[in-house]
Amino acid sequence: MGVSINHLTIRIGGTPIVSDVHIDVRDGQRVGLIGSSGSGKSMIARAMMGLLPVEATVSGSIDVNGEQIVGMQDRDLAALRGAAIGMVFQNPGASLNPLLTVGKQIALPLELHYDLTAEDRQARVLAMMRKVGLDESLVGRHPHELSGGQQQRVGIATALITSPRLIIADEPTTALDSMTQRQIVELLVSLVDEAGAAMLFITHDFSVLAHATQYCYVLDHGTIVEQGRTRRVLCLLYTSPSPRQGARLVMAARELTLHGAESEGGGTRGERAQ
Q: What is the pTM of this model?
């Protein structure tokens, strides 16, 4: 499933948050979107999912496999979310329903989009749990009983359970320690590649971007300022950052790398994954 974003502009209260953005994600491609905090990355992800705040106004186009997202009715967007597009959120502790067990959380997209028997749903849930590295004994646990890494694995399982052709990963490693970050990135990459799906991976971390993506876009103050093969773009940003190429992003990434090195092996920004 391909995605083509053209002339996307998002305003909130008349203030432009994203301006004239162009992004292409081809079927089977892993594409990164990197930018500092507040650059507009998550707004683009929310626009793709039809989850922008009500006060937001949008112009331009977001074409998902021939379906135009901008202006789409809520009912049609709901049918597209979960079935054709899966999303892995930044904070798994906040994105998971605290009242649902792991099994019910992962099964929810199946209940919404497919007419399956309870036995078939359970079999698919357990198979997906094994695939993302979760022990089946956790099926009856609630999110607060899991580590941060386990919570994010539940989020990945929930996003992938319907075999969507597009995955949007919005800062999926931010709340995790550096060792767990690597595990989650490797898991996402392997599952997306195995399915032949496309992925838009949103991050502000250079090392995560290098491992997760093949091509990337650099967003600065709501505008794309650089794009190309990930390794080439990262080399360019590190060796000759200019204001246009997001020098602030380079400084922020270097600081994050130092903090990550300090915390490695020392627990989490949340908890160490199991």
A: 0.85
**Closest residue by Cα to residue 50 from 74, 24, 23:** 74
Calpha distance 274→271 (Å, rounded):
9
Q: Exposed e or buried b for every residue in 85-109, given b needs 16+ CB within 10 A?
A: bbbbbbbbbebbeeebbbbbbbbbb
Residue located via tokens 């099964």: 107
Q: For residue 170, which phi and psi values (nearest 5 degrees)? A: -100, 95
> Which pLDDT tens digit goes with each residue over 135-173?
999 999 999 999 999 999 999 999 999 999 999 999 998
Report angle CA 157, 97, 271 to the nearest 5 degrees. Answer: 70
Chain centre distance of CA 52? 15
What is the C-alpha separation between 4 and 6, in angstroms, rounded?
Answer: 6
Percent with pLDDT over 70 in the chain? 87
Answer for the pair 169, 202: CB distance below 8 angstroms, yes or no.
yes
Residue 30 has φ and ψ, to the nearest 5°, of: -105, 115
By the 10 Å C-beta count (0-12 exposed, 13-18 middle, 19+ buried), 199 is classed as buried
Q: Which residues pair with 3 in a beta bridge?
A: 25, 64
Tokens of 89: 């959120």
CA-nearest of 259, 159, 248, 133 to 207 is 259
Q: Which residue has the tokens 């089977």?
A: 28
User: Among 56, 197, 108, which residue's Cα sits nearest to residue 45?
Assistant: 56
pLDDT tens for each residue of 122-135: 999 999 999 999 99
Q: Yes or no: say if 147 and 271 are a contact pair by the CB < 8 Å rule.
A: yes
Q: Helices (H) and strands (E) in the chain — how many of each?
A: 10, 10
Q: How far is 129 from 131, CA to CA, in rounded Å?
A: 5
Of 160 and 260, which is predicted with more confidence?
A: 160
